[in-house]
Specification:
The protein has 126 residues and is an alpha+beta fold. It is built from 1 helix and 8 strands. The strands form 2 sheets. Strands 1-2-3-8-5 form a 5-stranded antiparallel β-sheet, with no helix packed on it.
Length: 126
């Protein structure tokens, strides 16, 4: 009987260990999500396929901003905002998208503007 109960415990432990190997569910606080980079130009991959990326772009009229990691397709959304001490309306227009980068064109009220800007992009990674 002792050997039977030891074998039963061993079988239960093996079943429990194997059942948790294939899980890819995130905890409620996402503490087990390991595909992330919380740097200035960073990203956060969620287990369900959502990808959030952010960063800053340099100054210049025409720029290409490369993502820290690629999107699944070009159906992502990018939002930009100028970081400037000048009180002018500065528009950062997205004029091209790729899974690995996006292109930005900067325009001010009367001239082309080249202020530094921040961006955030949301899309899919799988």
């Amino acid at each position: 009987m002792i050997y039977f109960s030891r074998k039963l415990v061993a079988i239960i432990v093996v079943i429990f260990a194997q059942s948790s190997l294939g899980t890819n569910a995130a905890l409620k606080d996402f503490s087990n999500v390991t595909t992330k980079s919380l740097s200035q130009n960073g990203y956060y991959k969620l287990p369900d396929g959502l990808l959030i990326q952010w960063g800053t772009g340099g100054n210049g009229v025409n720029q290409i901003v490369y993502f820290p990691t690629s999107f699944y397709n070009t159906s992502y959304v990018v939002v930009t905002t100028a970081i400037s001490s000048v009180m002018n309306s500065i528009v950062k227009m997205i004029n091209g998208k790729n899974i690995s980068y996006f292109k930005v064109y900067s325009v001010g009220p009367t001239i082309e503007a080249g202020e530094i800007f921040g961006w955030i992009a949301i899309g899919r990674w799988k």
